[in-house]
Write a structure and sequence with these properties.
The complex is a heterodimer. Chain A is mostly helical. Chain A is built from 13 helices and four strands. In chain A, the strands form two sheets. Chain A has a two-stranded antiparallel ribbon. In chain A, strands 2-3 form a two-stranded antiparallel ribbon. Helix content of chain B is 77%, strand content 2%.
Chain lengths: 324, 323
Amino acid sequence: MGLQINHRSVIKALFKDYLILVAIIALVFVTIIFEPKFLSSANLTNIMRQFGPLSMVSLGMTFVIIGGFIDLSVAGIMSLVAVITVSLIEPAGQFPALIAGLCIGAAAGYLNSAVILTCGALTSAEALFITFGMSTVYGALALIFSKGATQHMSWITSGTWVYDAIGQGSVGFLSVSFVVFLLCLFILYIFQQKTYLGRAVFLTGCNKTAAELSGVHVKRSIRLIYTISGIMTAAGSIMLFSRVTTASPVIGKNYETNAILAVVVGGTTLRGGEGSVLRTVLGVMLVTLLSNCMNMLGVSTFMQTVLKGAILIIAIWLDNRKES
Amino acid sequence: MDTKTASPFGGRIIKLATRQKAFIAIIAMLVVMIFFDTKFYTVYNLLDLLKSASINEIFAFGVTLTIICGGCDLSIGGTMGLAGIVTVMLIDHMPIPFAIVCGLGLGAFIGFINGFFVVHQKTEPFIITLGMGMLLKGISQQLTDAHPISSKNPNFMMIGNGKAGVVPNLVIIMIIVMLIMYYILRYTQFGRNCYAIGGDYDVAVYSGINAVRIKWAAYVICGITAALGGILLSARLNSGSSNYGDTTALMVNCGVVVGGTSFAGGIGGIFQSAIGILVFSVLENCLNMLGIDAYIQQVFKGVVIVSIIWLDCFGRKRKREVV
């Protein structure tokens, strides 16, 4: 009997992820029927490259949402990291610029958590507006730093092979950005499942008071999730400007909503304490494949926005119905 | 630590400052402007300041209602764009009042759908209305092919640009909406029930309040005010565009919270929201008058948002620790 219950709960658990998987498979299937070019290697590489930036940002965002908070500063951090990293390539060299970019992301994320912790914001609503304000500041700093101008990678004379590799290179049939993504996913999955710190994030998201009373270092968890989000955002930003070979001071626009969309559609709840980076991967897959398939099928970008909104609403709605 | 070092007098000032931060911020800016030789203190500029604030104020009054009920509405950006576009499109085919009523009806319908998901189906308001805003923006783009469209009727433009005496129409409309909303929230059963629902949903239900209907109505009203603001913006600029309202939704929700309406629900008011939105308009006007670079203005804006909400949270934290 025990076996049967297990069996049933496994099916139930599968069904929860099943819906989004069905959506992804159906989408791909329909696209292949109408446009066989979808399977061409050029398009598949293209999908892998489009997948990179959003997946990185969303992976970082997952932990923030599991921890019961939210991070709207992603857009600002992306822009800031992009303009500073590109302008550092020539004077400092490629690797120092890369590391500097990641450090800026981490510092910005840490600063968010510091602001949130010093005022004792406990709910995601308070964090929402604080990070929105921080995003305005970071975005403005990016604009001031670049004087509002877009920087082109082709202007750099000292060689940009690292960034070319991130943006255009491939390892076997996988693009470099996809390999980096797999690596980050592996690390973050281990962090989430196997480490004390990762489990502390879940407890923080479930109930902060209970977590605090049972000896979980809640403040450390909050610092950690925002810093991870900052680093992953910086990585996403570097991937994005390497792919498009220009760094605009508004490059991160809309990434915050898209990342939240991917995380939530994947099945991580905004209430916190529940979710997984693997679910987020499904969410990002749906968002990326949606725009690729719709482009393949010739649906206008405007209708794509409508569909994205509709899918978000339906996904949340169905998720909510299942629980009640 | 701060409680120990602060004197009673200092404590009282901190208390006052933490209660009406937005108001104090406005006073501070007005005082600062006295020392600069600009045209800030002219009737023309002050009226213009109010005029530029009025549309955001109208959005904020509706949003305040949803936030007091314990929700929020991030779809207003999409609603305003779509309502403006639909009204501009309809004006060529029917008299202006009918077109405006259609636009407002559309806003009410969007609010109704938001209410269905958020209140009836009890989903997370933040993410549902975000998705709704995205969807509406897509519809607006589809309708206009992402180009701004303009109306040929000059009377429509006069609504947004005309003046009664010296006072711009927009300011008058804003004040009327403000008084109506103030009356609804303060002196009607509906308004008091809103506070009760936001304060504690379950308690409100057990006290016999039809919480679903009231909160749903709050969303419909919010949709109507968003549509009204969108129509007025279109009238002011004589065009409807899908690009209007890209950042409005977050900005207005933020302004309401800055004014002192608690995002947890049950606390706040129309006048507080009016002041919260006014902070940004006064700030923008002051910085423009002082000739400060647009990008640096953004930094100021962000710092003001963060610091006011920071103080708000900090005040609550102190209260928690005292208890």
